[in-house]
C-alpha cells in the first residue's frame, strides 16, 4: 500500500515537473516569438520611414530643380503678367455657380451642395473669369480639365496657356506629381495643370486661404524674404 502511495506521489511529482518545464518552454518560446515579431515590425517601420523621407526629399529636390529652370521661370512670368487679360463675361458668376452645383458638388463628400460648398466660389472677378473659362465652360469632365489646352479665348493668357500647358503636363507625368501650381507673389494661383477649384483664387484672402497649399505658400514666401 505504501509502495503504491509512493509510486503515485512520485508520478504526480514527475508530471508536475514536466508540466512546469513545458510551461516554461512555452513561455520562453512565446516571448521569443513576440520579440522577433516586434523586431521585424520595427525594422519594417524604419525601412518605410526611410522610404518616405527619401521620397519627400526627392520631391523637394525635383521642385527646386524645376523652380530654377529658365523655362519654368519664363512661364511663371508670362502667366502672372497676362492673368488679368482673361476675358471677362457677365455670365461668369452664373456659369461658375452652376459648375459648382452640377459638376463639383456631386463629386464632393456626400454630394453636399449646401452653403459650405457654394462658399468656395471665388468672388474676385479675374478668378471668376479663370474658372468660367477653364472649369465651367471646359467640355471635359471634372478630373480631366487638364485636357483643355486652347480655351478659344482671344486673351494673351490663353495664348500663353496654349504654348506652355503641354510642357507642364509632361513634367507631372514624368515625375508623378499630383499637380503643378504657379503662384505669383500676391498668392494668386495663376496656373495649374489640373484646374481644380482653387485655380485662379488668392491664397491670401480667397476661399482657399486656410488650405495646406496656402500655408505652404506663406512658408515659402517668408523663407525667401
Based on the model shown, name its key terms:
mainly alpha; two-stranded antiparallel ribbon; single chain; 7 helices; 3% strand; 225 residues; 2 strands
Radius of gyration: 31 Å
Strand order in space, largest sheet:
1-2
Q: Average pLDDT across residues?
A: 82
Principal-axes geometry comes out as: elongated
Could you estimate the helical fraction of the residues in percent? 55-70%
Number of β-strand runs:
2
Architecture blueprint of SSEs:
Elements: H1 2-68, H2 70-82, H3 92-104, H4 115-118, H5 125-136, H6 156-175, E1 181-183, E2 189-192, H7 212-224
Antiparallel strand pairs: 1-2
Q: Would you mind describing this structure in some detail?
A:
The chain has seven helices and two strands; from the N terminus they run ααααααββα. By secondary structure, it is mainly alpha-helical. A two-stranded antiparallel ribbon has the order 1-2. A hairpin with a 5-residue loop joins β1 and β2 (189-192). α2 (70-82) packs antiparallel against α6 and α3 crosses α5 (125-136). The protein is elongated, with a radius of gyration of 31 Å. The model has no long low-confidence stretch (mean pLDDT 82).
Amino acid at each position: 500500500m505504501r509502495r503504491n502511495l509512493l509510486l503515485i506521489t512520485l508520478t504526480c511529482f514527475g508530471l508536475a515537473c514536466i508540466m512546469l518545464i513545458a510551461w516554461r518552454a512555452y513561455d520562453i518560446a512565446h516571448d521569443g516569438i513576440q520579440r522577433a515579431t516586434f523586431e521585424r515590425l520595427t525594422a519594417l517601420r524604419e525601412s518605410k520611414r526611410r522610404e518616405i523621407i527619401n521620397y519627400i526629399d526627392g520631391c523637394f529636390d525635383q521642385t527646386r530643380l524645376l523652380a530654377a529652370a529658365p523655362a519654368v521661370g519664363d512661364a511663371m512670368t508670362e502667366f502672372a503678367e497676362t492673368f488679368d487679360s482673361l476675358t471677362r463675361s457677365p455670365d461668369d458668376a452664373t456659369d461658375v455657380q452652376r459648375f459648382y452645383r452640377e459638376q463639383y458638388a456631386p463629386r464632393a463628400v456626400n454630394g453636399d451642395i449646401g452653403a459650405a460648398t457654394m462658399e468656395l466660389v471665388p468672388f474676385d472677378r479675374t478668378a471668376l473669369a479663370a474658372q468660367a473659362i477653364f472649369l465651367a465652360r471646359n467640355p471635359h469632365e471634372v478630373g480631366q480639365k487638364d485636357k483643355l489646352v486652347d480655351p478659344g479665348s482671344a486673351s494673351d493668357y490663353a495664348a500663353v496657356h496654349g504654348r506652355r500647358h503641354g510642357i507642364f503636363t509632361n513634367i507631372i507625368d514624368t515625375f508623378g506629381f499630383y499637380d503643378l501650381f504657379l503662384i505669383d507673389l500676391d498668392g494668386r494661383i495663376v496656373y495649374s495643370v489640373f484646374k481644380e477649384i482653387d485655380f485662379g483664387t488668392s491664397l491670401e484672402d480667397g476661399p482657399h486661404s486656410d488650405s495646406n497649399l496656402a500655408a505652404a505658400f506663406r512658408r515659402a514666401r517668408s523663407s525667401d524674404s
